[in-house]
């Protein structure tokens, strides 16, 4: 793997100003641009859906160098990063954030200026069937990241979280950043716990922590266990489209690139110790999203199949990203209908990617969650497990 040379360390204020490169430093010497690197970012979970989008986007900025730490779980896929694999300002390190000593070694060698922490077990249904990996990665892994940061100080630590920590909201409520946390699933409880832990490291140890809470993401490269890619791939195959319960659960949809642009803005302009909501301003019931996918793919609505609801399924998420818009000028650019159509097009032209990620371990989960759903869920919610 090629490495970029580390330039002389920048002062903190310079880093903060230049970290998303909107204000580029003058290129003082080498024509290859290496001397223009002003910020080295460690990204965790950069082989996943959102992390890989962030890596691809950030590398478009000549001031940024990215080191991607990922364990490559079932959700981590280096094919998501094929387009940047040999980029001179990019490096991949396979590592588990649950390995504290390993993290310390990587940080001592890389000496990052900034960390964007995406790595997590990110799927609610998996967290219901098997909560332990959620505890390990989302809580212990985040704790390890924060502990590592105490020894290797950085300019920014962005902890990427979710609107699910606010739990289900009645109409017409919208969560701002002060809204009480009422998580419902092991996944959202793990994220809420890690948010609070991260913020405590700001209060107690003065670490430059920022927490972001985004709504439901969609777009290319999303693993087909999540609603939109699952429905798209089933529609392509003419298979039933399984909707949980009555399908009237409301989610706010955010295009993945808009999310990553927001994070870059926060790296640049966010304030330490703060929380920033990131929403797509587009709330829709799941059923409507599925109907739109059927319309785009030209498949009949008879493919819709209602299946047993998720235990503890939140009815409605809604959040306000007014603070982020006011402080950074960010707003989502992608209109949902256009984003959904281009997402369907992306999956249509990447059938090989779908075939690869759907093999093996994914198939086991899919059968557990859909083929034998009633039986498997019955066992999970009624029997205590060791
Ligand atoms: N997908 C959404 O709609 C959404 C919305 C808001 C917030 N988020 C948050 O954004 C982050 C990324 O979500 P995503 O949808 O891209 O997830 P994802 O499941 O697609 O990717 C997670 C990545 O983390 C890696 N990973 C998991 N455990 C690890 C470990 N122990 N050590 C190192 N790497 C590990 C995986 O290999 C994978 O590459 C998560 O923190 C999630 O909570 C997601």
Protein model, in words:
The protein has a domain at 12-26 and 33-219 and 254-281 and 313-339: Rossmann fold (3-Layer(aba) Sandwich). Strands 3-2-1-4-5-6-10 form a seven-stranded parallel beta sheet, sandwiched between helices. 41% of the residues lie in helices and 15% in strands. The radius of gyration is 21 Å and the shape is globular. It is α/β, with parallel strands linked by helices. The structure holds nicotinamide-adenine-dinucleotide (NAD). Nicotinamide-adenine-dinucleotide (NAD) binds at residues 44-45, 47-51, 70-73, 75-76, 96-98, 118-122, 137, 141, 160, 162, 191, 214, 216-217, 223. Residues 44-45, 47-51, 70-73, 75-76, 96-98, 118-122, 137, 141, 160, 162, 191, 214, 216-217, 223 line the site of nicotinamide-adenine-dinucleotide (NAD).
């Amino acid at each position: 793997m090629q490495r970029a040379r580390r330039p002389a360390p920048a002062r903190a204020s310079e880093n903060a100003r230049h970290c998303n490169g909107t204000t580029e430093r003058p290129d003082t010497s080498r024509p290859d641009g290496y001397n223009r690197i002003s910020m080295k970012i460690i990204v965790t979970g950069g082989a996943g859906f959102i992390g890989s989008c962030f890596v691809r986007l950030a590398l478009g900025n000549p001031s940024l160098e990215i080191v991607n730490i990922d364990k490559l779980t079932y959700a981590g896929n280096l094919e998501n990063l094929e387009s940047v694999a040999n980029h001179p300002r990019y490096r991949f390190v396979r590592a588990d954030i649950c390995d504290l000593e390993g993290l310390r070694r990587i940080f001592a060698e890389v000496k990052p200026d900034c960390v964007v922490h995406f790595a997590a077990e990110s799927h609610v249904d998996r967290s219901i069937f098997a909560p332990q990996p959620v505890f390990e990665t989302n809580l212990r892994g985040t704790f390890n990241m924060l502990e590592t940061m105490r020894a290797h100080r950085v300019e920014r630590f962005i902890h990427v979280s979710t609107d699910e920590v606010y739990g289900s909201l009645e109409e017409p409520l919208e969560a701002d950043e002060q809204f009480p946390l009422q998580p419902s699933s092991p996944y959202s409880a793990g994220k809420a716990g890690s948010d609070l832990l991260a913020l405590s490291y700001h209060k107690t140890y003065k670490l430059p922590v920022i927490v972001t809470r985004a709504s439901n993401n969609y777009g290319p490269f999303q693993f087909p266990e999540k609603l939109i890619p699952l429905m798209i791939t089933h529609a392509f195959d003419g298979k039933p489209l399984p909707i949980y319960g009555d399908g009237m659960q409301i989610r706010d949809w955010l295009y993945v690139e808009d999310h990553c642009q927001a994070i870059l803005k926060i790296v640049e302009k966010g304030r330490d110790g703060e929380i920033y909501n990131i929403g797509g301003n587009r709330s829709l019931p799941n059923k409507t999203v599925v109907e739109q996918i059927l319309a785009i793919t030209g498949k009949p609505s008879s493919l819709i199949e209602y299946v047993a609801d998720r235990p503890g399924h939140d009815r409605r998420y809604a959040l306000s990203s007014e603070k982020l818009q006011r402080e950074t000028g960010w707003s989502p650019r992608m209109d949902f209908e256009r984003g959904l159509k281009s997402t369907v097009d992306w999956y249509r032209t990447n059938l090989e990617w779908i075939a690869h990620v759907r093999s093996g371990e994914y198939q086991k989960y899919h059968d557990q969650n859909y083929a034998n759903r009633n039986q498997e869920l019955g066992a999970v919610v009624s029997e205590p497990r060791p």
